[in-house]
Amino acid sequence: MRFDPAPDPLAALQQRLQHEFRDPRLLQLALTHRSFSADHNERLEFLGDSVLSLAVASLLYERLSDQPEGDLSRARANLVKQDTLHQLAVVLGLPMLLRLGEGEARSGGHKRPSILADALEAVIGALYLDAGFDAASALVRRLFKDVDITPRMPAIGKDPKTELQEWLQGRKMNLPIYLVVGTSGAAHQQTFDVECEVAELARAERGIGASRRAGEQAAASAMLAFIKTL
Q: Is 121 designated active site?
C-alpha cells in the first residue's frame, strides 16, 4: 500500500500566501517567537509593520479617493489594529505554525492575539525582504480583498496613536517617535516599556503593555493626557 508523504506545513502556508520564498528561512524566522530562540521575529515584525502601513495607505488612497486625510487615517487604524491582524493570521493558519518556547506554548501562546498579529506583520516583512515591496503589497491586498472598503465603512473609534497623530498633524507638528526603552518578565510573559516623544513639545511620556504595540498605545494615551493639560 502506498502512502503519500505528509504535506510540508511551510509549503502549504506559501500556497496560501501565493508566494514561494526564495529563502524559506525568512518565513521560518517570521514564525519564531522570542520565547523559542534568541533569533526571533521581532525585527521582521518591525519591518512588516511599516510595509503593512504603507500598503494599506496606498490601498485606501485608491479606494477612498474622495475622503479627507483624517478619515483615511482612521480607516487605516481599523485595518491594521491587533484584532484585525489576529483574525487574518488565524485565516492563514498561523497559530499551529508558530514556534514558541515551552512556557509560552503551555500558556496558550498559539491563540494569543498579540503574538499572532505580530507574526503576521513579521510574515509581511519576510516577504518584503524576499521579493520586494510590490510582492508584499500584493499580499496585503489579497488579505483585505474581502473587506468592504467604502466611505460607508462602520464608524471607527480612534485609538490613542491615531488620535495623537491627528492632533499633531492638525497643528503642523512632526509625528511622535516611539522607542522601546525596556522589557521585563519571562520571555513568555514580557511587558514592554515604551517611550513616546513629541519633539515640538519637548516632552516624552511612557507606557507599559504586554506587547510593543500595546506599550505604544499606552504611551500615546499618556501623551494625550499631558496635551489636555496645556
A: yes
Domain with CATH 3.30.160.20 in the chain: 158-230
List pLDDT tens digits, range 187-208: 666 788 999 999 999 999 999 8
Q: What is the CATH number of domain 1-156?
A: 1.10.1520.10
What's the CATH code, domain 158-230?
3.30.160.20
Catalytic residue among 45, 49, 163, 216: 49
Is 114 exposed, middle or buried, given 0-12, 13-18 or 19+ CB atoms closer than 10 A?
Answer: middle
Q: What is the DSSP letter of 157?
A: P
Digit-coded pLDDT (tens) for 33-79: 999 988 999 999 999 999 999 999 999 999 888 888 878 887 888 88
Which residues make up the CATH 1.10.1520.10 domain(s) of the chain?
1-156
Model pTM? Answer: 0.70
**Active-site pick, 45, 104, 118, 121:** 121
State yes or no: is 42 an active-site residue: no
